[in-house]
Amino acid sequence: ETESAGSILSKWQDVATSAREWRLYTDGTGAPTFLLQDESAAASIGRADTTALTTATWTLLVATYDGSRALTGINLYKDGALVDDTNVTTGTYVAMENTSKEVELGSMTSTGPADAQLWDGQIGLVALVARELSIDDVWAMKALVNAYFDLAL
């Protein structure tokens, strides 16, 4: 069984006056995606994994962006392994806007409840940091999560 579409962490307002910046979510197949939006250029860049998350299974997802304005600056890790194997793009991306939209955990602001993509599951830990994490940082985070939650990711 796999997860369905759901927003994990977002700074994304998908309504008439869009204020979309970035989203970490699972698509309709349950596959994780990290997407960055440039509202002024109506463009986006992102990376996705084509493999769906499995329900009732703890997973450590880490999404990073180095600020380069390029697809190559985006990474998506699952349980410490780089898994982004698909580009997700539209238009010519320049940069995200710095909006006043608040960060949301487990949802995104949308036109209605049917579009909110509420997360239907458990979230054990969320961290948002102001720098790109290296693979060494991701592995250290994985070790800490394994130790704290008594897991073997």
Name its key features.
single chain, 153 residues, mainly beta, three-stranded antiparallel β-sheet, 1 helix, globular
Quick structural summary:
With 153 residues, this protein is mainly beta. The protein contains one helix and ten strands, in the order ββββββββββα.
Q: Helical residue percent?
A: under 10%
The termini sit apart by: 19 Å
Low-confidence stretches: none
Number of helix segments?
1
Return the structural class: mainly beta
Q: Topology, pairings included?
A:
Blueprint: E1 6-14, E2 19-26, E3 32-38, E4 43-48, E5 61-65, E6 74-78, E7 81-82, E8 86-90, E9 104-105, E10 109-110, H1 135-149
Parallel strand pairs: 1-10
Antiparallel strand pairs: 1-2, 1-9, 2-3, 3-4, 4-8, 5-6, 6-7
Describe the structure.
With 153 residues, the protein is mainly β. The chain has 1 helix and 10 strands; from the N terminus they run E-E-E-E-E-E-E-E-E-E-H. The chain has one helix at residues 135-149, and strands spanning 6-14, 19-26, 32-38, 43-48, 61-65, 74-78, 81-82, 86-90, 104-105, 109-110. Strands 1, 2, 3, 4, 8, 9 and 10 form a 7-stranded mixed β-sheet that branches. Strand 2 (19-26) and strand 3 (32-38) form a beta hairpin. The protein is globular, with a radius of gyration of 15 Å. The two termini are 19 Å apart.
